[in-house]
Amino acid sequence: MRKISQPVIGVLGRAKGFTLLEILIVITILGILASLVAVRMMDRPGEARMTKARLEIQTLENALKLFKLDNAFYPTSEQGLSSIVEKPAVGRIPSKWREGGYLEKGVLPKDPWGYDYLYLSPGVYNRDFDIWSYGADGEEGGEGEDADIGNWVVKGE
Fold first, then answer.
1. For residue 100, what are the contacts with CB-CB under 8 A and spacing of at least 6?
2. How many angstroms separate the CA atoms of 30 and 22, rounded?
């Protein structure tokens, strides 16, 4: 015959397990720990925006390099960054411009603060071109989140 298993009875004569009070205490402790972690993460939105700007600048650089591979020149300052999403209609017209552009989504991104990225070719800091954002304040210079972020800064870090 088969034996039916019975709950294990502890030393005090009751079934082993957690009481409601013990479970509530653990949940409370986990909640406190989670809130501490969330507060630490919430302190860094400025740093996250700056990192996003650096990554987008690198993406724009790569798109410009693809443009040059196809056309043997970089867009002029007058043609601007829009030349990687729309075929330029002014200046030197690229003969092998890629249909659909050079960015995956076909849309020129704004910086994390909602401003346009700036482009200068030939560049002041780089021989071929400079790409930069003025940061949170949208003005040249600044410190912290207001600091300018450019492709010359990205390479230097």
1. 106
2. 13
Token pair belonging to 143: 């410190």
Q: How many helices (H) and strands (E) does the chain have?
A: 3, 3
Residue 2 tokens read as 């088969």
Identify the burial level of 84 via C-beta atoms within 10 angstroms of its C-beta, where 0-12 means exposed, 13-18 middle and 19 or more buried: buried
Check if the beta carbon of residue 61 is closer than 8 Å to that of residue 131. Answer: yes
Break the chain into its structural domains and give their ranges.
7-43, 45-156
The dihedral built from the CA positions of residue 94, 97, 103 and 106, taken in this order, carries a sign that is: positive
More confident residue, 12 or 17: 17
Q: Does domain 45-156 have CATH number 3.30.700.10?
A: yes
d(CA 53, CA 112): 6
SS3 133: strand
The residue among 20 and 156 whose pLDDT is bigger is 20
Handedness of CA 54, 56, 59, 64 (dihedral sign): negative
What pTM was estimated for this model as a whole?
0.69
